[in-house]
Amino acid sequence: QVHMVESGGGLVQPGGSLRLSCAVSGSIFSLNLMAWHRQAPGKRRDLVASITSGGSTNYADSVKGRFAISRDSDKNMVYLQMNDLKPEDTGVYSCYVRNTLDRDYWGQGTQVTVSS
After folding, report:
1. Under a CB-based contact definition with an 8 Å cutoff, are residues 37 and 96 in contact?
2. Contacts (Cβ under 8 Å, ≥6 apart) of 79
3. CA dihedral in degrees (62, 99, 93, 75; nearest 10)?
4. Paired residues of 40 in beta bridges
5. For residues 112 and 108, what is the distance between their CA atoms, to the nearest angstrom?
6. Which residue, among 19, 9, 26, has the nearest Cα to 76 in the 3D structure?
């Protein structure tokens, strides 16, 4: 089985920063994609950022220039550095990974609340 543990969420004021972490362990084989998704209150879950095994990154337009996704392949870790946070960034952030056999896995999510 695959285990995924997310951490780093919390309550911050607008303009603040947070760093989310996702640790992946278990029978994952090789990962070819790691990503963060966000589900804002009352909205569907959307992609925030992703990174491939080759290092290519992709960001939602709303977070470009403020967020940065990174990975530690040796430790099966993925991070999301979140700067200049805005109220509209509020939501549940979930870690997502996909292995080379096209099997995907989701973390339970961590709450990020941006409010003054």
Report:
1. yes
2. 19, 20, 21, 22, 69, 70, 71, 72
3. -110
4. none
5. 13
6. 26
C-beta neighbour count of 114 within 10 angstroms: 20
What is the spatial distance between Cα 93 and Cα 96, in angstroms, rounded to a whole number? 10
Of 29, 28, 9, 2, nearest to 79 by C-alpha is: 9
Q: Kindly tell me the burial class for residue 85, based on how many C-beta atoms sit within 10 Å of its own C-beta (0-12, 13-18, 19 or more).
A: buried
Taking only the tens of pLDDT, the chain with its 116 residues reads 889 999 999 999 999 999 999 999 987 788 889 999 999 989 999 999 999 999 999 999 999 999 999 999 888 999 999 999 999 999 999 999 999 899 999 999 999 999 99
